[in-house]
Specification:
Layout (H helix, E strand, L loop, with lengths): L2 H4 L10 H7 L16 H10 L5 H7 L8 H15 L6 H10 L6 H12 L1 H5 L2 H4 L9 H11 L6 H17 L3 E2 L5 E2 L6 H13 L5 H5 L1 H4 L5 H13 L3 E6 L2 E6 L16
Antiparallel strand pairs: 1-2, 3-4
Helix pairs in contact: 4-5, 6-7, 6-12, 7-12, 10-11, 12-15
């Protein structure tokens, strides 16, 4: 059993850790949310500028993010690289870039999925949000508790509080929470392209068949199983997926143009 699959519901036990890393996922360790949010506004500004593949020129030289100091520019560049694989553009980050222009309404959830794939600290506190019913209040300490269940004593008090605040902000940016201080659970608004992207990441993490619909990556769609399948069927109409469902048999394949962003041969048409 791989280290990625031993303790996390985000990975199947047989998930190949090297394959995950080549695809752009970070199976374990720390993450950006210990000091920053998913930085949706900064990512959006960078994408609008066209600086995804040359972020240093955009952020450092031209200051497209409008940061007040060189230090702030450098930190933003570093954290955006951590979350979204800028300039290196591993496969799942290339897929994000591919979908960004196709689905403006889905951008917050596309960014969230990529951030979840690349930041274990965000994933490990996600139960507090994903498992909360609409209308429930989600307190920052609940995110800390969810993280602590998997990693007892790993973070000091200040770092745990920072992680909880940043993660709560990210879930708010993505549409799962609302309220400036009192955070209340709301329903996210996934699109077919978001469903295809979630299925792509889930497949890389070892999920297939009916287990794919039920996995944590598809939980991010914030919809019941029938709706998840419906979204994937709509993605099929957009040429992003191929869905075959009959009784208890389910097959979901990633299709062009997502597959064209994948440089690892065994990830194409999985």
């Amino acid at each position: 059993m791989s280290e990625a699959g031993q303790h996390s519901p985000w990975f199947m036990p047989h998930a190949d850790q090297e394959r995950l890393i080549r695809a752009g996922l970070k199976p374990h360790g720390g993450g950006t949310h210990q000091s920053k949010t998913m930085m949706l506004a900064d990512l959006t500004a960078l994408m609008e500028d066209g600086g995804f593949l040359d972020p240093a020129a955009a952020i450092i030289e031209r200051n497209v993010l409008g940061k007040p100091s060189m230090r702030a520019r450098e930190v933003s560049l570093k954290r955006l690289r951590e979350l979204y694989g800028l300039d290196i553009a591993p496969p799942i980050c290339s897929a994000l870039h591919e979908l960004w222009s196709r689905d403006p309404g889905g951008r917050p959830l596309l960014a969230l999925l990529c951030a979840l794939a690349r930041d274990p600290s965000l994933r490990d506190g996600a139960d507090a949000v994903l498992d909360a019913p609409p209308g429930a209040r989600v307190r920052a300490p609940a995110i800390t508790e969810a993280f602590e269940e998997r990693h007892p004593g790993r973070l000091g008090e200040k770092m745990a509080q920072s992680l909880a605040r940043n993660a709560a902000s990210t879930w708010t940016q993505a549409g799962y929470l609302e309220g400036p201080i009192r955070k209340v659970r709301t329903r996210a608004k996934p699109s077919p392209a978001v469903a295809a992207y979630a299925a792509l990441i889930a497949t890389v993490c070892g999920f297939g068949g009916p287990a794919l619909l039920e996995c944590r990556w598809l939980d991010v769609l914030d919809r019941p199983l029938d709706d998840r399948l419906s979204l994937l069927r709509q993605a099929e109409g957009l040429g992003l997926a191929r869905v075959r469902a009959a009784g208890s048999v389910l097959e979901v394949e990633v299709r062009q143009p997502l597959a064209s962003a994948l440089e690892i041969p065994d990830l194409v048409n999985v």
